[in-house]
Specification:
With 179 residues, this protein is mainly alpha-helical. The protein starts with a helix and ends in a 7-residue tail after the last helix.
Length: 179
């Protein structure tokens, strides 16, 4: 509602106020300094003559100037960091099993995917007599030293469920009161 009231006052007598502003005399611009006018200088014949006259002293100095430019020698880039591969890296298909959709399909020889690593670690944990380090190295194209390190330092997670009796025993335990 406040907008309607302000609009009424703003539009009141608009035409008369506009005519009054238009009919006012325009302010006169400030006078210009006489040296700022370039038209007067170009009209004088002395200035025109000075501009078009050749000065022999400047011409002789200009003839003494000799500029010789040479392109720098072209340096051939040796491509220190950028090298084309000498041979194509050998790749092998992964041995995935039921987790096939989660992993990559091809892995370079000497490397292993995460799903394969988890698979052979779990197989070694469940059947260490069958899945020895030598068999894993041969199966996955790995070095024996690396397989031994993997088997020693990486252990897959195990899920442990507590029997219900221990859960009751834990719930039934009352904390001691401090006195």
């Amino acid at each position: 509602m406040g907008g309607r009231v302000t609009r009424v006052f703003r539009n009141f007598n608009v035409e008369n106020r506009a005519r009054r502003e238009i009919s006012k005399e325009k302010p006169t611009p400030a006078p210009r300094h006489p040296t700022a006018r370039l038209d007067a200088m170009t009209d004088s014949p002395e200035i025109k003559e000075e501009v078009f006259r050749k000065d022999d002293r400047f011409l002789t100095l200009l003839k003494d100037v000799y500029v010789e430019s040479r392109d720098p020698p072209v340096q051939v880039k040796d491509g220190g960091g950028e090298r084309l591969p000498c041979k194509q890296e050998e790749k092998r298909l992964t041995k995935l099993g039921h987790l096939e959709a989660l992993d990559v399909k091809k892995v370079p020889k000497g490397k292993i995917s995460i799903v394969e690593a988890l698979t052979f670690l779990n197989n070694h944990k469940l059947q260490p007599q069958i899945w020895t380090a030598e068999k894993i190295a041969a199966e996955y194209s790995l070095e024996l030293k690396e397989v031994n390190s993997l088997l020693e330092f990486f252990i897959p997670f195990t899920v442990q469920e507590f029997p219900k009796e221990t859960k009751k025993a834990i719930k039934g335990h009352k904390p001691k009161k401090l006195t």
